[in-house]
Amino acid sequence: MQNHFAPMVRLALGSVLLLGAAIPGFAQGDRVIPPMPMGKRTSPVSVTAQAPAPAVAAPAVAPAPSPPKEWTGESGSSGHPLMQAGAIRQAAANFETCLEGLWPMASKRSISRASFEKFVHGLTPDLRIMDLMDAQPEFTKAFWDYLDILVNDARIANGRDVLAKHKAIFDKVEKQYGVDRYIITAIWGVESNYGTLGGDRPVIRSTATLACVGRRQAYFRDEFLSALEILHRGDLKPDQLIGSWAGAFGPTQFMPTSFKRYAVDFDGDGRRDVVSSSADLIASTANNLKKDGWVPAETWGYEVVIPKGFNYLLADRSKQLTLADWQGHGIKRAGNKPFPHLHEKAYLLVPAGNQGPGFLMLHNFRVIMKYNPAEAYALAIGHLADRLRGGDAFVQPWPRHEPVLTLAERREMQELLNRKGFDTGQPNGRLGPRARAAVRDYQSSVGLVPDGFATATILARLRGR
Q1: Listing from the earlier edge strand, what are the strands of the sheet with 345-349?
Q2: Which one of 71, 132, 186, 393 is most buried, by most CB atoms within 10 A?
């Protein structure tokens, strides 16, 4: 997970993100961030609020993969030399030689020659992945739409069924790892709708393809070799090792390298099975969060009410204050509830600026973001966890009247801000923390509330209309 090969591969999985949210990338290498129901993705998942999944007693073994679409034969949009059509064809023609060249590295990992030949023999490159790797989906869902889809009545009800079904396991896991069962269940629910949805590609073939073809071969060699280790050790069988085009698998979406670091054999059967064993899945996910710094008995954050006249320049991930300090700035917890521990430090997130709710994010929120570095994702996890334990929906309304900027419009906004001296970085249509800071600075310069919320009104003003 902490392979931040950066924040791009999950993006190509047809993930969201939204106005003002960090675009997700390779959190755990490439866990599938739950997609918006708008088509583009690499597995046949379509998450909708109107079509609830049935509650499941245990994570389901992934179905047999359906025949993938063929490669378009076109060069990748990244412009990388290894993503040019000719380079892809040349690498594909050399695929067998490339794989054989990985044998010495496999041998150093104590993979037997027999296992290597068993799992590598007959592999062919899945070149369709090249289209997916450089895909630039058009994100058209707002922060609040994303939350509506992932935190709905059906997902809450199914999650409570899962919690009841596996209560004994959760009791043991919480005692051993100190990680909240509701957070684990929320991750399970958001990542795969409790194991009912998942990728459709053999992980060994996907990672082999990416180890020999395309622009991230060095990164994916490690994933491919780690997948071979999983199969050689016998933790999973090939028909269980099915996932996304980039190799994320299982109901909570482990990459092969992350599996090596975090997976545990909690049921004691000698195998670390995060696909079919609920005990191993729950404990492995807890172990992941624990090693990422989860603080036991602490929550992720709070919905808060922001007073009029508030200095929104304080709404920055780098500005951490104690809850007592935030209270001094007029911030109150929604519903007039008290903050349990005023000494805890948090940063203020305002996804919809002064038009929507605010959130004070504690340390454990940052831990969730290590699982997937997108604020909308982490907020969905935290909120679903709260609802599973019986908490209320968010109190304050979202500005649902605000139109969502298209990818082209967000890129244009970045370009216009850069021209005016407000640095957003390379224009890419992703309005993350750096772009939000630029929007805030621009708003402040023209006498607007500097809340960092990128709206159509601001874009029109930047255009001079």
Answers
A1: 321-322, 345-349, 358-361, 301-305, 332-333
A2: 186
